[in-house]
Each structure stands twice: as C-alpha cells, then as structure tokens.
Amino acid sequence: MTVNMIRDRLQHVYWMGGSPCAGKSTMAGLIAAAHDLTHYHIDQELRTRLPKPNPARQPCLARWFSSTWDDLWMRPVDALLDDVIRCYQEQFDLVIADLLAMPAGAPILVEGNSLLPDNLAPLLQDRRRALWVIPTETFQRRTYPNRGEWVLHILSQCSNPEQALQNWMDRDVAFAAWIEERVKDLGLAHFTVDGVQTIEQNAQRVIDFFGLAGKPVSG
C-alpha cells in the first residue's frame, strides 16, 4: 500500500504523541469520553491485542520484550535512547498495520510514545490532526517516581534501583528532547507540560488544537 493510500485510509484518525510522563493517556481518555472518540491506547494494544514481536521483523522490540529489568535500565543512557527509538519505530509499523485492518469511519484518537514525528508526518493529510505533548525535565523527574506501585516493582527487580531510576529518567529526558527537536524540525505542533495546568486544562488544549466541537472535558 502506498503512502498516499495509507494517508487516505487514516483521515478519520487523530494522533497524540509525545514522551513518557506527560499525562497523555489520562488526557486521551477524557477527550475520548467527552467527544465520542475511540481511544486507541498503543501501550494497552501492544499488551493485549497486537501480535507479539517477530524477532526477524521486529528484532529490537522482541529483544526489549524478553529482557530483564537490569538489561533495560543498567546500561548507558545513549544506548537506552537508541534502543527506545528503534523499538518505537517497530511499534509504529505494527500500529499502522492494525489501524488499516480496522473498519474506517468512526473517529479514533491514537495515543502513545511510539508516534515518532518522522514516521507520522508523511501519513498526515491534515497536520492539525497530530499533536505531541512533552513534559519538562523538572516535571518528569518530580512526577515519575510517584506514578504508582508498578514503578517501584520494576525498580525492586534491578540490581541497583537508584542507578536504574537515574538511567530511566535520563533516558526519558533525552527522548523528550529528541522528540521536541524532531517536531520542531518538521514544523509539527507540540506543547509542554510543566504541572502548572491541570490535566483537564491540558486536555482542553488538545481539544482546542484539534478543533473538536462540543462539551469541555471534566475530571
């Protein structure tokens, strides 16, 4: 299928990318509920419905899924950043194939970190359908350790939890900077999350950008 054909097939999709700890999933849930959109949560789809990575076709993703937490976090930050970009590129291909297999028509809000700007830009019929939400470094470092038991559970399985958390945060900060640079270079839209505005206010910013008519979000 050509890029033009994919672009035509996915005109009913809104895209919200960014980097971890920006509140994207919560915002997407609020927006979808308020505006009758299907929320396509990439991380959830990968866990529950999309096919398992094929080592021949998605080598980085397959290795990522089979790694221990030490394998993932007790490595140099440059290597972690390179791996996550490659894995998100492989995830993107799985997501696009899945969306193309779904019936077109009803609007969908696709949300997740693997919406890399360079991959998505050629598929956009309308650039006002894509937005990246990026946390500031201060907000990200302050918020991530408090996101829930799952973070502590991961760290508890690392040989050096403090170093693992440092590497994790450094990688996500580097990824956020990389995403912001790529978005700016491609002339795409983004905004930053610094904790000053509420999650509802940030969701409303997304709604306003997309031009969705109707009621505002509510928590």
Strand and helix map with partners:
Elements: H1 3-9, E1 13-18, H2 24-35, E2 38-41, H3 42-48, H4 59-66, H5 69-73, H6 77-101, E3 108-111, H7 117-120, E4 130-135, H8 137-143, H9 149-156, H10 161-186, E5 190-193, H11 199-210
Helix pairs in contact: 2-11, 4-6, 6-10
Short account of what is shown:
With 219 residues, this protein is α/β, with parallel strands linked by helices. The chain has eleven helices and five strands; from the N terminus they run αβαβααααβαβαααβα.
What integer value in Å does the Rg equal?
17 Å
Number of strands: 5
Please estimate the helix content.
Answer: 55-70%
- The number of domains is 1
What coarse outline follows from CA principal-axis ratios? Answer: globular
Q: Trace the largest sheet across and list its strands.
A: 2-3-1-4-5
Count of helices? 11
**Mind summarizing the main beta sheet?**
5 strands, parallel
Query: Termini, distance in Å?
Result: 41 Å
Mean pLDDT: 91
Tell me what the structure shows:
This protein is of the alpha/beta class and 219 residues long. The chain has a single domain (3-210), classed as 3-Layer(aba) Sandwich (Rossmann fold). It is built from eleven helices and five strands; from the N terminus they run H-E-H-E-H-H-H-H-E-H-E-H-H-H-E-H. It has a five-stranded parallel sheet, with helices on both faces. Helix 2 crosses helix 11 (199-210), helix 4 crosses helix 6 (77-101) and helix 6 (77-101) crosses helix 10. The protein is globular. The protein starts with a helix and ends in a 9-residue tail after the last helix. The model has no long low-confidence stretch (mean pLDDT 91).
